[in-house]
Amino acid sequence: MSLKALAVSAGACRLCLPSSIPVVGRRLLPQVDVRPLSAAGAMIARTTTMRFERQWQRRAYGSKKKAGSRQLAAEEIEQEGLDDAPVDIDKTEKQMQTRVDRFASELQATRAGRANPAILDHVRIKLKSSVVPLPELALVTVKDAQNLLVIPNDPEERSLIETAIRNAGLGLNPRTDKNAVVVPVPKSTKESRERLIKSLGLSAEQARVHVRKVRQDAMKQLKNAAKSSGMDRSTLKSWEKDVQVVTDKHIDRIEQLLKAKSQEIR
Fold it and tell me: Domain HTH cro/C1-type spans what residues (predicted)?
């Protein structure tokens, strides 16, 4: 028996019923706009319709909620998989890339025949108990296009700094100026360009050392994870290969940057 026939048998006027029953949420909703023979019947009809609507809404909401819960559970499982990884490859690559970017910035700031603080980065100052890089003892700035200005943190170390710069093999002849050291940068010659390239080569090696250190830390983390989790050898080798691929990528990038800058200077 159809829903319309059921409504008529319950006492509704046949002419007051709609020609079809509406479909809500892909389900037949027994909602009929009827005018029963009595006021009490009308109230019952409205109440019944509202009750059915609330039931279907709750069911639809429940289905959406379950679907959302399943999606959330899948995301949590995926995140747990990332958390359980023996090493974070993305983090490892980011650490390497940060150092490569720093080296690239140093190269970009380097111009042959112009004062550039980077040329003094590898000067070492011999103190009583240790040997310290110049940038740790003084502020190196550009005074003008042909002169660097070195301002010691401790004015008493001014003479040590001056001597170290003169003996660094850079072809520089610094002079004392009050509490600072002025370093004239000679105009570009073949020899000065070669010295600059040599200095950049030292910077490149420092960048390589940093990248290899990040690789070493990742490999150590892998081995520790393998011991604690019982990881099989083939899986460990696969992870080590991933780390090595990232390492080679950044070492190659350092070589490319150095080669391009050396050709530019020459």
Answer: 211-265
Contact residues for 120 (Cβ-Cβ < 8 A; gap 6+)? 134, 135, 140, 148, 150, 165, 168, 170, 183
Question: What distance in Å separates the CA atoms of residue 205 and residue 211, rounded to the nearest whole number?
Answer: 10
Q: Where are the beta strands (DSSP E) in 113-266?
A: 124-126, 131-133, 138-144, 147-152, 175-177, 180-184
Which whole-number Å values give the CA distances from 244 to 2, 19, 180, 218, in the listed order? 72, 73, 46, 10
Q: Which of 26, 58, 77 is the last residue of a domain?
A: 77
Classify residue 82: in a domain, yes or no: no
Tally of domains in the chain = 3
* Host H or E run for residue 27: strand 27-28
Residue carrying structure tokens 């319950």: 10
Percent of the chain with pLDDT over 70: 67
Mean pLDDT of 54-77: 49
- Same structural domain for residues 203 and 154? no
